[in-house]
Write a structure and sequence with these properties.
Blueprint: H1 20-33, E1 34-36, H2 44-48, E2 54-58, H3 64-72, E3 77-82, H4 85-98, E4 103-107, H5 110-117, E5 123-129, H6 147-156, E6 157-167, H7 170-181, E7 186-188, H8 198-205, E8 211-217
Parallel strand pairs: 1-4, 2-3, 2-5, 3-4, 5-6
Antiparallel strand pairs: 6-8, 7-8
Helix pairs in contact: 1-4, 3-4
């Protein structure tokens, strides 16, 4: 009997120092606002305590943009997933400071979250801001937004739901646009407003222009 190959990971966990404030936020707030990606199907209404459109944000860094967008749009709930422990703690701290209750923080692989925990047509939007570009040619296979991931997102989006991608790597933007344009279920639209990220500011200062792509799920 042959074993199934391990899936190619689009991320790697980085050992980073967790500050005292971030650790305190994790210890106090994770039970109420955090969850582990373990493959168990999610009841989004139970998770957020209300019935509202849910946006999945994949990779939120230190969480400043996530908190700002959640505050600007209180009618939507945000499920933010990342593997960076300091960022998780910082986002929880920001949520408490702003009194925000419409964000939940998930620790783990976004692909597993989409595949095993979220139902078809369950999301009003997906945000993928500045994903790991894996610029070396031998690492391109590790990029998250490939043909298979694009199709998975299209299935999890409700009718009219939007996938919003931002990147400062032209090759990644071309790959994403090609994968999404090949799906008859998705159509290009104008990118919605988003808050500027810390990573984006550093890139702009270094002369790296940003491209925003948005595709909307057509009616089933």
């Amino acid at each position: 009997m042959t074993s199934r190959p391990e899936p190619v990971r689009s991320f790697k966990r980085r050992a980073s120092r967790v500050t005292a404030g971030q650790r305190t936020a994790l210890d106090r707030l994770w039970p109420a606002f955090g969850l582990t990606v373990d493959g168990t199907p999610l009841d989004l209404v139970a998770l957020f305590g209300r019935s509202a459109p849910v946006v999945l944000e994949i990779g939120f860094g230190m969480g400043e943009a996530t908190a700002a967008m959640a505050a600007a749009d209180p009618g939507h709930d945000v499920l933010a997933v990342d593997v960076h422990t300091p960022g998780q703690g910082n986002l929880l701290r920001l949520l408490e400071q702003a009194g925000l209750a419409n964000v939940r923080v998930a620790d783990g692989d976004a692909r597993q979250l989409l595949t095993g925990m979220l139902a078809p047509a369950s999301l009003a939007g997906v945000r993928l801001f500045f994903p790991d570009p894996w610029p070396k040619s031998r690492h391109v296979k590790r990029r998250l937004l490939d043909d298979g991931f694009a199709a998975l997102v299209a299935d999890r989006l409700a009718d009219g739901g939007v996938l919003h991608v931002a990147t400062d790597m032209p090759a990644y933007a071309r790959q994403a646009a090609t994968a999404l344009a090949a799906l008859p279920l998705m159509e290009p639209v104008e990118a919605p407003w988003r808050s500027q990220t810390r990573f984006e500011r550093r890139g702009l200062a270094a002369g790296r222009p940003v491209q925003d792509l948005a595709f909307r799920r057509v009616r089933r």
